[in-house]
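Re: the pair you flagged

First of the two:
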Amino acid sequence: MALYQDRGAENEDLARQRVRRYTRRVWVDGGLHHRLDGTVSLATPLRERPNAVDRGWLSDAGRRGAGPEAAARPPRGVAEWAEEYGGRLLILGEPGAGKSTQLLHLAEDLLDSEEPEDRARCPVVLLLSTWQPQTGSFDRWLVAELREHYQIAATLTDRWLRDGTLTVLLDGLDEVPEEGRARCLEALNTFLRDADFADVRIAVTCRSTEYDHLPARLALEGAVSLAPVEVAEAQRAFRAAGAALDPLRRQTERNAEVAAVFRTPLMVVLAVLAYRDRTTALPLPTGDAAQVRKEILRLYVVSMLYRHRVLARAEPGSSAIGERGFSPSETYCYLAHLARLMTRRGSRLRTLLYVDELTPEWLPRIGEESYLPQGRPTGWFGRFTARVGLDHASTGLTGGVLATCFFAVFVAPLSVYAWGLLPGLLSAVPLSLAVGLLVFTLFGVTRMQPFGRDVVFFLDDEASVPRAATRWTWVAARAARWVLPAAMGAGACGLVVGVSTTAVSGLVAALTILVGGLLGLGLVPDYRREPDYPGEALTVSGRVLRTLLLAAVALGGVESAAYALAGWPWQACLAAVPMSTCLFMVTGPGRAWLRTRALTFGGSRSGLLPSRLGPFLEHATERALLRRAGGGYAYAHDALQEFFVHADPGAVPEEPAGGRPVV
């Protein structure tokens, strides 16, 4: 029962160790050490911005925004700055300056610290992009996020926030939707000024320009900003990358507009990775600073799409383009759709994509046609599916077909036993079609909002439906909650069989279906162990489902033998076993597995996602367009995600002329 309810009594030491392991695996090992801006070594010192924060009576009340930089001070790392300001620090910088990297460096320093006080603290990294105005107080948002991503019980989170156990690292104040950014700042300041949370250490990152436009300043103790990269430093990096970067280096010497673009580490790294491969003939960027920056991003994408050796296997003779079966045009198109799906309003997966958490509701609904591929739908069937929402997710069509097939296969033996071979088969067909039509209506029409509003009737909402997990536990208390509904359903089936045959046969069929139903309904997911690799939870859930099916068949055989010895109609038990196993497909791991498969089918049906989503994500990772982050995926950098958000999926860049391997 502790797995199903709030784990408030969980051992604090074990919980603290689990949180620290998760932060290291997902954010430090999977995020910091695989970031693009860490590929090239560049000097980016931190400079103090004393007027960027509100320190109460110590602040200059007449100033607002980032303010001027303070006088030069000896260089120091982000951990030293955080320590000087009591662990409450604001990190500012331009896009691509390395704000997130500095935040993750701070997390790594806290994890590696040998100080007893630091070892007792738990650094947690959270994305402010998930904050919503309707969330309420900021501490409520923290509790919800830590429960969702770190599996910390609400009572334990509240206690840790009050005693200062947590070091909260918040990334991307500028990524909060603009209409809610001021309210997020207000909620965060209320939290920071609350005496109950005075011991919480907290660091926040934000773009300088967006921060300047906020109506107030954060109530932190200090602020630093990342200094721009010197032109000489960028040229040194180009020179160290080899002769392939010489034309670009000479252009920065002649053109001040081009040189100004390489004042951030990201632009330097993208240029080095794009040009040094020497397997594609890329043109030099021209235009003003904004055009050059956009062109560098485009050239990097082109280089990664068409390079003849992937980064993960960059040895001579390694596999060429299309190793996993995805052409450059398919890769570009799917990455553009994926970026739009992740950043659309209301998406919980704005930065990190967890394959195990994807559900059909993640795909766009009616009213979001801008996310659909160009040229769809066509024909009368296409227009019909667009009207009922099937071109968005196709979950209604998928669910209807699956329900028809499952019901026909699993109810047919029971029908044949009750009414004979031919009448039983003839009666199973219309019953199966009726069930399929019901599923099609509920999930294909009402779920896709054809009338502009939710019409869900008695359906579960997305938050309450179990998703794939790395561990499943059967809990008797959970099964007990479903005894009455399961008994009513099994009794209805048993009544039909009993009326058609004998009362004992109906009782045997009802008991068999009830046992299978409670076996599936009592399964509870345990999310305390995060997946070690993407898709692991889905794989485990599928394995649990297969085990359950085998267990149900074995249990049915044992029941049949017992009924035969007792002189009861054991044939009724065998006929009801398929119906009993059918319940595993709509409960627990079976439902989680089916929902993910429905998403994949729906995404490929509408052209938004590939049918082989897992191999595609690995393919994009090998091309350094995506990166792994623990059990999920993220774009190699936020700037690349923003690039694909605004990219036209149909306008695939062509391979540069002369793009052949250099011998």
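Second of the two:
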Amino acid sequence: MNPVDYAAFVEKTKQFAGKPVDEQRSIALYGLVSEIGSLVAAVKKKILSEGGEGPHWDQPNDEITEELGDSFWYCYSAAQVMGGGYVDILSHNITAMRAEIGGSDDRAHLIERSLDPANRQAFLDGAAAFPPADGYTFDDYQRLAYKTARTDGRVLLEVCLALLWQHGAELMRTVLPDSEAALHTNVANREPTIVLGGVAWHLSAIASLYHLSLDEVIASNCRKVQFRSERGAPTPLHDADRDAKEQFPRQLDVAFVRIGPQKSRMYFEGRPLGDDLTDNYYEDDGYRFHDAIHLAFIGHLGWSPVVRGLMKRKRKSRDDKVDEVEDGGRAKVVEELVIKAIHSEGDRQAKAAGRCVIGTPTRLFPERTLINFKLLKTLRAYVDGLEVAKNTFWEWEDAIYDGCDMFFQLSNEKQGTVHIDLDRRTLSFSPTVCPGVQGISVGLGMGSAELSMRASDPVLGAAEREWAMRDNRCTEAAAAKRAVLDALGLDQNSTELWPEIEVRLGVGNLVYVKATKSVQQRAWKLKVVDYKIAFSRDTNRVTCTATAIADIHDMAT
């Protein structure tokens, strides 16, 4: 890729392009300086791992290559923002160095004495015809620019790292108010293009010291950035060639029902899905709802050996080791490890950003850009050798983002239903639950409401009234709320209990109930997990019969 095309790529993939120019400049400069810091850290780790002066200090690794690429991306982004459009910073850098090295002042003579004569002349000859009319590549720049290196080896590496920090300080000076800039005159005032050219030179030199092709560094950076900016067709579902009984349902609802303090249960098609859920932690951190991320893996990756096993949809019909490898215990352990890594990194970032508030759920990865490429690569390494390794990075990003959103909403509501549309690769959440349990009746109640009351019935809270008015079912909702309270053995006319329960009607006679405080305690005591209702009406009133349902397995213990 040539620099012109790369600049266009950077402009195309710049997610902050719509922001005000000053904000764009700040984002680009902060990004560049932070990537320089990450590059310094990557080089430091490499050097320390080689014992300081080890013989392999100059062997590159993926982290150094990635940080070089990211630094170039922000370098070009800053050049575009600060220059008001495309700026050929590499060509500009060659021109500036040619004028400096070929000059006649004291600085030029000092440089001349420190440069190899052959390299100096070769650079001046090459620079005179740079850039060529037919364009140039990053490698062309890298070869020509490196001829101006006045040191080599570890010494040059240290020089590059030090001067990259210095150039970063120069660039950050442009965001200082005039009063502060006047008080801090020990940092040079140079044109940003000159400084960015210096950044590019030292990044290029580091690539040379690590025997890296700058073209390949840039190409790798493009591949990394494209996973967010360019989305193709989703990966084919991994169970597409299997019989329906060995496939994930293409449409499914999973209800999370509260069955006790800090204890929940998943229901699928009227049956419990797995064991009861607790946090397995000293504090209530909501981790019992992490299964929502498993469901997001199904929705976006078509993968979850854990849930596939719980649904009894393992692929056993063929002697092809798929059941053993893809749906077996080792794959399940990997999936749990992946989710724990997502939760830990999301929690770490939230704490670092001050987003954690004691006593309230934390939204992990509230912005997609917080799902960094390092995490995605780590997760890809975990699943290496499994079918999900075929999924693209953007699919992983969608799964993490939506999974954390489902997790957050469940942590807030303490109950809810996750709907998965595997054909469209989407997830959605509703705070209501109706698991459809075929269980045992543990309570029967009746309630009624006058047709003349309609939306004015005081039994309904504001949220219930809003829901009911959408479907013109206010009278039925009021009757159902009284009936549910009666089924729980509670006073349906108690104004103190009305705020502790919300009732929402679904299609037909479906009812969704959310209880709190004493009403919730009563439901837990009866082991209620679902409700069924029926309506009758006469001229003046609507009457509802409600049945409180317990899971048969709970009543057997």
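The mean pLDDT is 91.

-B.
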